[in-house]
Every structure is written in structure tokens, then in C-alpha cells.
Amino acid sequence: MIQIDSVTKRYPDGTVAVDELSLEIPDGSITVLVGPSGCGKTTTLRMINRMVELTGGRILLDGADIHAQPVNALRRSMGYVIQNAGLFQHRTIVDNIATVPRMLGWDRDRARKRARDLMDRVGLDASLAKRYPYQLSGGQQQRVGVARALAADPPVLLMDEPFSAVDPIVRKVLQAELLRIQAELGKTIVFVTHDIDEAIKLGDMVAVLRTGGKLAQYAPPDELLSAPADAFVEDFLGTDRGIRRLSFFTSAGLELTTAPIIAVDSSAAQVAERTKASGAPYLLLTDTDGKPLGWTGPAAAAKGGAALSVAELLPHGRPFVFGKESLRDALDCAVLSPTGWAVAVDDGGRVVGVTSQTTIAEAIRGAHAERGAAGSPSASAKAAAAEAAAVDPAIAESKAAESKAV
Ligand SMILES: Nc1ncnc2c1ncn2[C@@H]1O[C@H](COP(=O)(O)OP(=O)(O)OP(=O)(O)O)[C@@H](O)[C@H]1O
């Protein structure tokens, strides 16, 4: 556990970047520091690995003051990932990742093998190993940054806006990858972002800071959305708070019906019988494998449902994976469906049932009640070099070589 205990940072010019901040960062989870620009997120993160020295309070790592060990040893126990990855431009990808193991005295082959294993783990194709950073996309470079930070298997990972410089689609992919890697590795991750959606998606715990480096709220995302501590947090969370909170409610308990579902090879009699028995406005047609094709729509309904024409089907929209995706996903599917009904599928994409907006609304009410009511619970090149240098002597060396080359 990392304990931040009444920590203050007053810079020499008098700026109080962090003011009496106390946080307990649990092991094996992702804690996100979020807040408006200048609220002290980066300063807080850098005080943990002593790139910035605190001026008041103390930080404990597993009960011991971070000043109790040499700063280099402390930093080796903490991977550090920054925006734009901060890679060594003159080193290949595999050697970028192998940097820290090499510094720890591993021989080249072992360090490179570790680097290649990590490339696989962060989703980088082995064919990229011999390339240089400039030959990679921004998203790939960020993956290298994560792999490099993981190379010496540190228990702690500090991540400062690691995905801010990539486009929204790549960013989503990288977020999902981080969650996947974290599920495998269980690191203690402290993640800085100014994006509240990213905080809610990634954080097991979220610390919202306000300008002046004061803690506004520290809570799991679900609680943050359901019970913001004050108007500042509420405002920072933005609109759609209620809808966004539904992401934390599973669809597993949602009532489904199979009555309106019919396979494409059904007889006219079966279709007529289903049309009568079903509570839905139309029938959902599936292929012979049980995958959705579309809703029969008004034309078929007018003919008593006896005519099944695939060409006339209404789109079924995006189905949701029953029990895996949330009530928010289910509601989204229903709202986007031309029939107002959402289609639930299993992992293989086969239909397991359909459900109406009304049923989803009932499930939402039930979920709220269960939880105790609805209301409860770029920096310049110089600065980048200085930052990199502070992390690790190898980075200092590489950056110095680069500036000479320039
Ligand atoms: N070396 C420094 N000297 C003086 N003031 C500083 C220094 N570094 C940061 N600050 C100030 O400390 C405050 C907090 O800065 P910090 O970079 O920690 O904020 P942040 O929340 O990470 O911001 P952003 O989201 O914009 O990166 C700001 O007012 C900033 O101007």
C-alpha cells in the first residue's frame, strides 16, 4: 500500500501545488488522480517516486517512508509511463524495453527475451522489435512505454496521462489493454488523467483534486457518480451522471423473453403462432445458428407474420452480451433499436432473449433499490529530457546523446 499522509508541496516560488493531501492507495488496484489542469496531479505522482520532493507530510510504501531507501532503489520499484512514451529514439523497440533489465545487470539475451515477452503481453507484434520509435504509431509507442515500465516487474506503476496524446479510438483500445494487463499482473497503479471518463473507466478508486491540490473526494467510481461530495465534484463529473452510473450495474438479472424469437427456417404456422403469442411488436428473426438477422417489422406483422422476408427486416442494432455487459449497454441497445427492444446474445453472438425498454427501466429501479436508493452511495524537449533523466540514469544518458546529435 502507498500511504500519502498529509502531504504538501510548496514550490520555491511559493506555489502550493498540493495541500495536506491524504490518500491510501491499495495494493493491486488502479487509483486514478483526476482534476482540472494545475490541481497538483503530476506533482503528487512525482512525489511518490521522489522526482519531486515533498515539503510537508510523508509518503509510506508498504509502511516504510519512501526516504528510507536510496532514491534509485525506490525508482526501480516503480515503473513510470509518461505522455508521448518518452522512448529513446536511437534505440530499437526491443532495446528500449530491455533498458532497465540491462541496467540491473541482466545479460543482453535474457533482457531481450524479457522484452519480447513483454511486447507480446502489451499487444505489440514481434515484427516491430527491430524498428525505431519513429517507425511506430503513437499508440504503439505508448504500448512500448508500458512494456518498458513493466520490464523489471516493479510492484508499482506510475502513469502520467499516458494515453492523452493518442486519438480517441486508440485511446479506448489502450485503456482496455491496460485493464487486461492489470487483470493478469495485479500491479499497484497510480494513474493521472484530466479526463473523468477515463478515470471512471479505469479506476478502482478515484481521487478528485481541486485547484490548490486539495482532495475533493476519494471514492470508487460508482460511489462518485451516485454521491458526489459537493458541487465541484458534481460539476466535474458532468452531465449524464445517472446514465453513466448504469455501467456499474450488471445485465445478469435482466428479465429476457424468447417468445418473439424465431428461426429463419420456421414454417408459416410457427410464425403465425409466435406472432400471436409474443409480447413484442415484431418477431426477431435468427439464422439457423441462432444469430440475429433483424426484426420482421410492420409489413410482416400486417400479413399476420406469415411472410418472412429477410430483405424487409428492420435492423436489430447492436446486441448486448447478457451478463457481461451492463444495464447501460442494454439500455443503449434498446434506445437505438428501431423496435425499442434490445437483443441479448451469448459470448458466441447467439440470441439468448430480447427485452423491452420498460423491462430495462424496471431492472434499473431494482438495481438502485438494491444499492440503497438512487441518490446514495507537451512539454518542451528540454523539459521532457529533464523528466526522463530524473527517472533513470539510462534515460539521462540517452537524452544527452540525442541532444548532442541534434
Ligand atoms: N517547478 C514548479 N515551480 C512552481 N510551480 C510549479 C512547478 N511545477 C508545477 N507548478 C505549479 O503547481 C501546480 C500544480 O501543477 P501540476 O503539474 O502538479 O498540476 P496538474 O494537475 O498535473 O496539471 P495538468 O493537468 O495541467 O498537467 C500548478 O499551479 C503549477 O503551475
TrEMBL record:
Keywords carried by this UniProt record: ATP-binding, Nucleotide-binding, Transport
GO molecular function (one): ATP hydrolysis activity
SUPFAM superfamilies to which the protein is assigned, alphabetical: CBS-domain pair, P-loop containing nucleoside triphosphate hydrolases
Start and end residues of each ABC transporter domain: 2-237
Top-rank taxon, per record: Bacteria
InterPro entries in UniProt: AAA+_ATPase (IPR003593), ABC_transporter-like_ATP-bd (IPR003439), ABC_transporter-like_CS (IPR017871), CBS_dom_sf (IPR046342), P-loop_NTPase (IPR027417)
Range of residues in the leader sequence: none
Pfam families: ABC_tran
EC nos: 7.6.2.9
Family statement drawn from the similarity comment of this UniProt entry: Belongs to the ABC transporter superfamily.
Protein's UniProt name: ABC-type quaternary amine transporter
Lineage, top ranks: Bacteria, Bacillati, Actinomycetota, Actinomycetes, Kitasatosporales
